[in-house]
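Per reviewer request, we include the raw input and output of the structure prediction for the construct analysed in the revised manuscript.
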Amino acid sequence: MTTLDREEVRVPHGAHEVAGPRPLPLRVAAPLAVAAGLALLVAFPPYGVWPLAPVGVALLAAAAHRRRLRAGAGLGFLTGLALFAPLLEWTNLHTGALPWILLSLLQAGYVALLGAATAWVSPLVDRHRAAWPLLTGVLWVAQEALRDRTPFGGFPWGRLAFSQDTSPLLRLAALGGAPLVTCAVALAGGLLVTAAWRDWRRPAGHWRPVAGLAAALAALLAAGSAVPVGVRGGGDTVTVAIVQGNVPRLGLDFNAQRQAVLNNHVDATLRLAQQVTAGTQRRPDLVVWPENSSDIDPLRNPDAADRISQAADAIGAPILIGAVLLGPDAGQVRNAGLVWRPGTGPDLGQLYVKRHPVPFAEYVPLRKIARMVSDQVDRVRADFVPGAAPGVLNAGAITLGDVICFEVAYDGLVRDTVTGGGQLLVVQTNNATFDAAEARQQLAMVRLRAVEHGRAALMASTVGVSGFVSPVGRVDGATGFNAAAVVVRQLQLGHGRTPATRAGVWPEVALAALAVAALAGAAVLRRRREVTPG
């Protein structure tokens, strides 16, 4: 037997110590940790088996319970690798294996911290078994809060909340955003592990609380279903078109196809205009093009500007284009959403510059050091500079809340557009360097944001998946991947604010503070155990 197998926890009990049951044998705990990661993986799109998310949480909680910190961290790391390596496989499609491996290892490191924290609070769990579900919930929120912000602004992909796009728990986003949904999923996992964990030396009556725990789990799911969601402060009904022009070929060299990509979006819009003229399609109040639909700067290139103006004039409606713009200073570039109006062209007062460029993809931190790891960083020849203002854009009949690509994963960036007056959430993205799995994972985030803020939303992609999302999280008009498509829908604009919009970051702060308090409480119990005479 290993040291871990022989480990026995001393649990404080009044003025004396009693020997607590041992942790699960390592030969059982390690496979459980891997199974936890795989269960979590299958909960996310493209698989979408959302009930497996609480199961994954429960398996990791059981594996790490009563472990030494190092063992808990190691088991958490196994879970993290089993989750993130396959979940982020799309990063490996066109950049080589090294960035994928490094990113997966980094994300797994945060789950390792969670495993260590789970082991650390074991004395609290053993003293107050009923607290196990809540402790599990707040620890997961704290782990995600840290991972979402560090390093270089964080990487929120793989949050528990983003696995619940078809779950009753999704509606909880309207009350407390993604952190509350994550807490509910982990709380459900805590209920499962509390019901399943057995101290076999206890009498058979220990089975009796299982019914109560099952009832609590059912009540949690019912509570999610009961949350009222829908458009807030319903306003006018408008018609919006998404243009998915597609690219000649997938991969990192889509930039070498810039003119073809722009032409694809112009031509698709011109065909839509012909349908409007023929009376077979409703004239849109707004047309949305995706990120990178014009990687030729139309403010500097007259030919690109002429082609976009041709499309806007033909359709007779503003077009939100996704453009790579030069400047503002020499050697700088910006990833932007820009309103282009029929008759007058670009409206420079309605320009959104992406506030959170992706590190090592749109800019390279510590470039000299990064180059020592991989020369792939030199593909990013010029760093994108971040914008400073939220993406609130006036497009005539509609005030847009615009974010670009991965920004949809960041709570504050989306919320800022709503508090700034956005009536329709828009996500402009380019999935040409990834695959359909990444696109569907991103669409799941759009579904959560629509519910969270009581707004209709849409995702416009160069290659798919594009689609509309109702304020209750229902997807309409989803396109295929690597295909050209135009989707037109009528939407009701929103004006009010949900409890989650009003609360902002505070639910996450409160839940993370509870996690810190739990860690501190466990430290007190451990210290008391050390100083109390046996």
